[in-house]
Amino acid sequence: MNIGQAAKASGISAKMIRYYESIALIPPGRRSDAGYRIYSDADLHTLRFVRRARSLGFSLGQIGDLLSLWQNKARASADVKAIAMDHVADLDRRIAELTDMRDTLHTLASCCQGNDRPDCPILHSLGDVV
């Protein structure tokens, strides 16, 4: 299949497929005699793997590591689990940061009268230099 067909079947745009090839995340598609990229079912399987990993928020570096492990039948599942658990820890940290941001903004917004007066605790807080 050509890159457009691979993009449609995998859920990854042709532009992103080219990008993933350019950074060596995935191997470049084979070329037809006319120079067009050609993708096999195995390539499509790899693209779907990448799309699923991206949907779970893994970084491109982590996806590269996961792809290497996925393709290595002698891998230790502990290596895969370590990558996943590192990602979970990062997600937990980001969730905590977002929760703190939301709580702070909620508190500031509840202190703001939201009327025609210029006094605004939200702007005062943003202007406070610590």
Summarize the structure in short.
By secondary structure, the protein is mainly α.
**Do you know the CATH architecture of the largest domain?**
Orthogonal Bundle
Q: State the shape.
A: elongated
What structural class do the secondary elements suggest?
A: mainly alpha
Could you name the ranges where pLDDT drops below 50 across 5 or more consecutive residues?
none
SS elements, strand count: 2
Encode the helix/strand succession as letters: HHEEHHHH
The average pLDDT score comes to: 94
Distance between the termini: 58 Å
Strand order of the largest sheet: 1-2
Largest sheet: 2 strands, antiparallel
How many helices in DSSP terms? 6
Quaternary state of the chains: single chain
**Count of the domains:** 2
Radius of gyration: 23 Å
- Which band does the percent of strand residues land in? under 5%
Reported by name, the CATH topology of the largest domain is Multidrug-efflux Transporter Regulator, Chain: A, Domain 2
CATH class of the largest domain equals Mainly Alpha
Fraction of helical residues: 55-70%
